[in-house]
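Lab notebook page, bench 4
Experiment: in silico fold of construct C2
Operator: M.H.
Input chain length: 208 residues
Purpose: comparison with the prior construct
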Amino acid sequence: MSNILDSEKNWWAKGLLFENCNCQIVCPGHVSFKQLCTHERCIGHWAIHIEEGEFRGTLLNDLNVVILYNGPQQMFSGGWTQLLYIDERASLAQRQAVENILKGQVGGPWVVLSRFVSKRLETRFLPIHFEDQGRRKKMWVDGLFDTTVESIKGRDRDREVLFKNMFNKIHAPTQIVASGSTRHAGEEIPLSTVSTHALYSRFSWAGN
């Protein structure tokens, strides 16, 4: 069921957000950007499946996006490098909308994160594939990028391990703790992880 756009909001989006970085589980920077991450550089990604949304009359339904980043050990220090991959199925209007949202140019939660980015690499439009297999989430671009995150096992093996009431600008307050593995063959932000920090949540964003 689609939302009715609030008269004071120019865009909204809902879907699935999952991440993986080279930190041990759990990434200290996820708890607070002022904490020191596991390594001298925190390198990772956010994978986004927009299930439905609207940007000033343009629908954003069923689009996939990857944001790769390379940041300092203390993420709060800024100076991040960021690279954006957008689903090639997106129309010109959808591409512009998604870029505006994720670069923090039109309000919403990405405004805050954009302040830490000092270098933005050129956006690429690629065939991005996505699979939601329940407790396992996958996103990939053939020959370039591949990520899989899977929820870790708790004491009750049938239930996910959760963060609740966790403050985060882009994730929901309830987040599922996971383990992830990623390979990115791009020269700008190379990334290779195995069973490192990951999590996922259902996001709901809106902005002016």
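Observations: The longest strand covers residues 36-55. Helices lie at 28-31, 92-102, 110-114.
Next step: discuss at group meeting.
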